[in-house]
Specification:
47% of the residues lie in helices and 20% in strands. It has a seven-stranded mixed beta sheet with strand order 3-4-5-6-7-9-8, sandwiched between helices. A two-stranded antiparallel sheet has the order 1-2.
């Protein structure tokens, strides 16, 4: 590994300071709201399902519990966030956005998308991809360096069924999408019924599911259904990473495993459905060759969304 020079380090430090200023983090409010930068980040983490408890926020935002408590108190008082008691553990209070909070999050996301879109519009596609890889790599390097300068062991990817897999995949989807766009019972029951049906077909060689367990608890999954679309087309489904593993690169590794399976099986195409606005996931898909093929409005999940279908052409030897 090439050693960094003093010049490299100073250039990164200078760019980091400039980035913080350009994004407005030196100001008292952020993203065209009356919220502090930490409150905006809290709103985003709750909306996107990475934080379902105050402890999650403390870990993600790197703030003391007392600071998070004050921050949440304000968001609850303004009617943007609501706390509800966990059904299985009365000691845990789950965080979700109210309708007002989701509207605010949508405005923040729109403002950010416009700002970033304008900034990268003049850049070539390859430059944008390099920029994304660099930012993601730098953020991950900073996170790893905080753990006593010791990189954590890479989570191991396992294939096939194991006890609680079905329940955990449904749970992760329900938590993430309820916070993000307000999906409720229709979405959760659809995920549960379709995943349960798929599990009965795992013995078929064209079907596969991969998962990651962290601390004995399933924390990420992805599946390839080779039977529910016509012809030799694969369907990528149930791709989800729990908040505890986001930023570790496990999403890329899971996606790579699924794509390698598709190519080994000789599928001519792989399709997936997602929703507009999930930019981090979209970047992962496009990295392995998926392209947007279709968009349409949908409300089958209990909330208005723009559904997107991505297609990847198979890479045959």
């Amino acid at each position: 590994m090439k050693a960094s020079t003093a010049t490299d380090i100073e250039r990164i430090r200078a760019a980091s300071r400039r980035l913080v200023r350009e994004l407005g983090f030196m100001e008292q409010t952020l993203a065209g709201t009356n919220l502090s930068p930490s409150a905006v980040h809290a709103l985003i983490e709750i909306a996107e399902g990475r934080a379902t408890t105050a402890r999650d926020l403390s870990d993600l935002l790197r703030l003391e519990k007392s600071s998070v408590s004050r921050l949440l108190k304000k968001l609850i008082e303004t009617g943007d966030v609501v706390e509800t008691q966990d059904e299985n553990d009365f000691r845990i209070k789950r965080l979700t956005l109210t309708t007002k909070g989701r509207d605010l999050f949508a405005a923040i996301a729109k403002s950010a998308q416009t700002r970033v879109g304008q900034a990268i519009a003049p850049l070539a596609d390859e430059t944008v991809r390099t920029l994304i890889d660099g930012l993601e790599g730098y953020a991950e390097a900073l996170a790893r360096s905080r753990s006593d300068n010791t990189a954590p062991d890479e989570p191991e990817i396992a294939e096939g069924y194991r006890p609680t897999l079905l329940a955990r995949v449904v749970e992760m989807h329900a938590h993430y999408y309820s916070g993000l766009v307000g999906f409720g019972l229709p979405f959760e029951t659809k995920v549960a019924s379709e995943l349960a049906e798929f599990m009965t077909r795992l013995d078929a060689p064209t079907n596969g599911i991969w998962h990651v367990a962290s601390g004995g608890r399933i924390s990420a999954s992805i599946a390839i259904d080779g039977q529910d679309l016509e012809g030799d087309i694969a369907h990528l489904r149930w791709f989800i990473v729990d908040v505890t593993l986001r930023g570790t690169g496990i999403g890329k590794r899971l996606l790579d495993a699924a794509i390698a399976f598709c190519d080994a099986q000789g599928f001519s195409e792989t399709h997936l459905w997602t929703f507009q606005g999930l930019d981090t996931a979209r970047a992962l898909y496009e990295r392995v060759g998926f392209e947007l093929a279709e968009e349409k409005a949908g409300r089958q999940w209990g909330a208005d969304v723009i559904e997107q279908r991505f297609v990847r052409i198979g890479q045959l030897d």
